[in-house]
Amino acid sequence: MQNPTELLKDYIRFPSVSTDPAYGEGMAGARNYACGLLEQLGFTVETVETELHPILLADRIGSPDWPHIVIYGHYDVQPADPFALWTDAPFEPTIRDGRLYGRGAADNKGPTIVHMAALARVLAEHPDLPLNITYVIEGEEEIGSPSMPAFFERYAERLSEADFMLVSDTGSPNTEQIVITTALRGLVDLEVKLRGPKSDLHSGIHGGAVYNPIQALAEICASLHDADGRVNVPGFYDDVVPVFDWERDELKRYPETVESYRRMLDVPAFYPANGLSPLEAVRFGPTLELNGIGGGYQGAGSKTVIPSEAFVKITCRLVADQDPVKIQQQVVQTIRDRCPPGVTLSLREGGIAEAYLVVPPGRPNTPADQPEALARAFRAADRAIGEYFGQAPIYLREGGSIPVIADFKKRAGLDALMIGLFTPIDNLHAPDEGFSLSLMDKAIAAFEDIIKRIAKVS
Ligand SMILES: [Zn+2]
After folding, report:
1. Range list for CATH 3.40.630.10 in the chain
2. Which of these, 369, 365, 382, 385, lies nearest to 439 by C-alpha position?
């Protein structure tokens, strides 16, 4: 296999923007490119048709007695717009100061090339490597993976034969300190509309007689948290997974302080997050956020009006063991209960996603039945990252959501070893996305070691 940097450049040259139909050719190009690399590595590749962008499902299966891993990634990228803000053309990869720039360099083409380059090296040394590998590379991650439910419907049983999965679609604080992500938050989406009078009213003629929908909505919104920052929805915290001391200790190793975080966000003070520190709150706690609010007169100057309606958009980030269906119902019921009789409530219940949590081996809360292959992979990763990056990885829950990871667990029983290869300067989804070439080298060496240890040839 070619030099990894050249591979990544070639891969980036296919503009695989999944959201825009104008990039169909780029999508096909990136898919064929990934498919070709997998075939070079000896995989049997199946292109699973979907309503939009096909999924690559590739197997290298030998004996049922070998460990079996699934490697997940995505070949689609975010749009490159606005093009004018890029230093160089987004789909013409360029190297500056040890970084390779281009859309998808970090999310997720760089990490995909890291895995494949490492595997190529291992297979060159051990052509009969005793490891079953299944690749799932989808083309709709950046648009919410709409085809994955149907994919699981067809392939979950087959995937469930694997022991665990390997993913690098999460971040680390810098190129020296790798994070192994142990949790992702779930999501609940909701929109609330309150309707008052059938049309906007003159506040001099009708003011004082009717319930102003903006006021009613503001009262409901204000009631959704208490003074300590706790979400004030009955039952909201019932199933929240506890935070263990080892997790707080790991977070202390993270190279960020409350003060540096505060300065980065430029806020005068943090919100009282229910007894958690701000750095803990974004990882360990569930939230309810008001994402947008509207109603009434929005133009210049003033207008003496009682608006006929008001709306708010709400999302919750959930932690493991919170059931998104149950939480959505609890929030809906709470809002219904608190809605005054003077307004009419309507609700749009949007999408939901489950949270995910995996516990590394040897912790007080490690499940007794953790698969041996997963435990071995965690230990291999710990050791290899320590060796090639010079520091042991930090095991950390992440505040973001990758719903497909929870789906792999729920549908196919697969836990994920998530080794973060992006860093904050990689500008994911933004202009001048890039990937560190020194991180790429270290990561390839580390993954080479990890794969060998999973396969027990090292
Ligand atoms: Zn990604």
Report:
1. 4-184+356-454
2. 385
3-class SS of residue 357: strand
| Check whether domain 186-240+286-353 has CATH 3.30.450.40, yes or no | no
- Centre of ligand 1 to C-alpha 161, Å, is 25
Which superfamily does CATH assign the domain made up of 4-184+356-454 to?
A: Zn peptidases (3.40.630.10)
* Ligand 1: centre distance to CA 142 (Å): 7
**Whether pTM exceeds 0.90:** yes
Query: Residue 440: what pLDDT?
Result: 98
Q: Which residues of 265-308 form beta strands (DSSP E)?
A: 287-295, 305-306
331 contacts 361 by C-beta, under 8 angstroms? no
Tell me the CA–centroid distance for residue 107 and ligand 1, in Å.
4
Burial class (CB in 10 A: 0-12, 13-18, 19+), 105: buried
In tens, the pLDDT along 390-437 reads: 999 999 999 999 999 999 999 999 999 999 999 999 999 999 999 999
d(CA 402, ligand 1 centre) in Å:
9
- How many angstroms separate the alpha carbon of residue 73 from the centre of ligand 1? 8
CA of residue 362 to ligand 1 center, whole Å? 29
Give the Å distance between the CA of 229 and the centre of ligand 1.
31
Please say whether the beta carbons of 151 and 55 come within 8 A.
Answer: yes
Per-residue pLDDT of 81-102, as tens digits, reads: 999 999 999 999 999 999 999 9
Give pLDDT tens digits for 130-158.
Answer: 999 999 999 999 999 999 999 999 999 99
Express each pLDDT in 154-212 by its tens digit: 999 999 999 999 999 999 999 999 999 999 999 999 999 999 999 999 999 999 999 99
| Residue 120 Cα to ligand 1 middle (Å) | 22
Spacing, Cα 140 to ligand 1 middle (Å): 10
